[in-house]
């Protein structure tokens, strides 16, 4: 008997304030930790036959579109496509009538910050089936395993270790500070032993510390990603004096990705809005084959707060932000509410121009949102990022490549994730309308399939609702445990 499924359709962590940490620590000492609720979903256990869908493949220079396709999903993988899917479907398969909707690979968000498990639902509900978290904390590792085992609904989680930085003007309380090569090597080894497989580096690492990190990571088979280290920041940088480490030097260091166009303009262009220099830089990055994670939305949201004099901070959807982090961001909210919006608009326009130039010159761009800090809403911000890239002049097709095949390629998993083909991981989204004409149709998927598990419109709505229930005390516990594990001082103690 084939079961007919009802297919519903629906329409910076910038500066942790020591005072707040102290407050959180006091709360932590006085309150019992909230128990983790273990859901017991049977992820991937059910076979799914998705019929009559329009399928887009993103692996070529132009879209490959197939109409009226069937896709068989089994055991968390794509088992077969087309006629094979129909013949290989088991008797008890769950059938999903696609009714000519478009099916595409689940989206990657290559730059997020997760603070609490409640945030995961918002990513998944917005079609994000893989996140790369870029400030590692110990709680993320068991959480990642619970998601993969189907015990917790969320995107697949990849994470770096804690952010490694040197002492200096941009060191933040959640950074792990390494000021000597010995400390740097020890930190990398500890990250490896803890279970991390990628290192996040930050701007103000000294040359000696950075070299030690790079060499130790390479010896352990770990990737490096992050803000390109520039050495200790001194007065006159970036325009009047050279950086201790030139941007160019890092292009041969096999970064998984380089983060933030904003940072590339700072370090690579010495903060000059020079399109010819940007094009020359793009050619060097393309030749080195280093992917760039643009994160335009991170700066766009700063601009929008300035432009609205703070009103943007309470727009619809901000209930999905973690209140613990929002409390930490209060000084930044205040600062950006009073910033010069016209100046910020000019900077944003240049960052978009640079992104377009990178695409034109063959740089592989990946999609990241910096969600989880400032006012960057999990899941939603990835779509804001995609819109900003279209606005910059990339085609919707090129933009969807940034969130699918380009990301998979950067992560070295292009043979397993990011496409719809037999043997690939069953991370998929079904959408109404044509995303090649209007990328906005990706915002509210009609259904999501995560590691083979089908999420319909009703469950999608529940995920969003649950995502607004972020646990303040659990978040505080997560952050404090992370600071303790990386040997950072916990202020207020
Ligand atoms: Zn970030």
Provide an overview of this structure.
- The chain has 493 residues and is α/β, with parallel strands linked by helices.
- It has a domain at 107-414: TIM Barrel, CATH 3.20.20.
- Helix content is 37%, strand content 17%.
- It has 17 helices and 19 strands.
- It has helices spanning 18-30, 83-88, 120-125, 140-148, 181-194, 207-220, 261-268, 275-288, 296-307, 323-328, 330-337, 341-360, 380-392, 396-402, 405-410, 457-467, 472-485; strands spanning 3-4, 48-57, 64-74, 77-81, 94-97, 102-105, 107-112, 128-133, 156-159, 163-165, 176-177, 198-201, 223-226, 255-259, 292-293, 365-366, 428-431, 447-450, 453-455.
- Strands 1, 2, 3, 4, 5, 6, 17, 18 and 19 form a 9-stranded mixed sheet that branches. Strands 11-10-12-13-14-15-16 form a 7-stranded parallel sheet. It has a 3-stranded parallel sheet with strand order 7-8-9.
- Helix 5 runs parallel beside helix 6 (207-220), helix 8 (275-288) crosses helix 12 (341-360) and helix 12 crosses helix 13.
- The protein is globular and about 70 Å long.
- The termini are far apart.
- Residues 1-43 have low confidence and may be disordered.
- Bound molecules: zinc ion.
- The site of zinc ion has 5 residues, from loops.
């Amino acid at each position: 008997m084939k079961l007919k499924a009802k297919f519903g359709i629906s329409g910076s962590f910038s500066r942790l304030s020591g005072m707040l940490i102290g407050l959180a620590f006091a709360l932590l000492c006085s309150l019992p930790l909230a128990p983790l609720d273990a859901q017991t979903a049977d992820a991937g256990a059910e076979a799914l036959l998705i019929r009559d869908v329009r399928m887009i493949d993103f692996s070529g220079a132009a879209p490959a579109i197939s109409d009226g396709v069937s896709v068989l999903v089994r055991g968390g993988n794509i088992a077969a496509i087309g006629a094979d899917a129909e013949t290989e479907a088991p008797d008890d398969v769950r059938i999903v009538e696609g009714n000519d909707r478009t099916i595409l690979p689940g989206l990657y968000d290559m730059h997020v910050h997760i603070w609490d498990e409640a945030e995961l639902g918002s990513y998944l509900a917005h079609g994000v089936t893989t996140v790369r978290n870029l400030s590692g904390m110990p709680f993320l590792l068991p959480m990642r395993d619970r998601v993969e085992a189907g015990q917790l609904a969320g995107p697949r989680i990849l994470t770096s270790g804690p952010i490694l930085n040197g002492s200096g003007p941009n060191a933040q309380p959640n950074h792990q500070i390494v000021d000597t090569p010995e400390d740097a090597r020890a930190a990398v080894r500890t990250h490896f032993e803890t279970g991390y497989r990628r290192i996040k580096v930050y701007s103000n690492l000294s040359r000696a510390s950075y070299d030690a990190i790079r060499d130790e990571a390479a010896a352990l088979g770990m990737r490096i990603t992050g803000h390109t280290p520039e050495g200790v920041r001194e007065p006159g940088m970036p325009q009047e004096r050279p950086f201790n480490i030139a941007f160019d030097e890092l292009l041969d260091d096999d970064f998984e990705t380089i983060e933030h166009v904003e940072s590339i303009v700072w370090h690579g262009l010495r903060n000059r809005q020079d399109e010819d220099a940007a094009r020359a830089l793009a050619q060097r990055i393309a030749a080195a084959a280093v992917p760039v994670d643009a994160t335009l939305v991170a700066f766009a949201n700063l601009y929008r707060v300035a432009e609205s004099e703070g009103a943007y901070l309470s727009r619809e959807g901000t209930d999905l932000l973690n209140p613990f982090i929002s409390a930490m961001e209060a000084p930044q909210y205040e600062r950006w509410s009073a910033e010069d919006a016209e100046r910020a608009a000019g900077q944003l326009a240049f960052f978009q121009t640079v992104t377009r130039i990178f695409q034109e010159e063959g740089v592989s761009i990946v999609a990241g949102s910096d969600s989880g800090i400032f006012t960057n809403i999990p899941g939603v911000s990835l779509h804001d990022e995609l819109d900003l890239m279209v606005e910059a002049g990339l085609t919707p097709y090129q933009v969807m490549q940034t969130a699918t095949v380009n990301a998979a390629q950067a992560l070295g998993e292009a043979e397993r994730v990011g496409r719809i083909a037999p043997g690939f991981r069953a991370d998929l989204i079904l959408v109404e309308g044509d995303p090649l004409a209007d990328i906005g149709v990706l915002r509210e998927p009609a259904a999501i399939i995560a590691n083979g598990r089908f999420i319909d419109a009703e469950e999608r709505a529940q995920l969003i609702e649950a995502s607004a229930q972020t646990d303040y005390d659990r978040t505080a516990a997560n952050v404090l445990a992370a600071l303790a594990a990386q040997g950072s001082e916990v202020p207020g103690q």
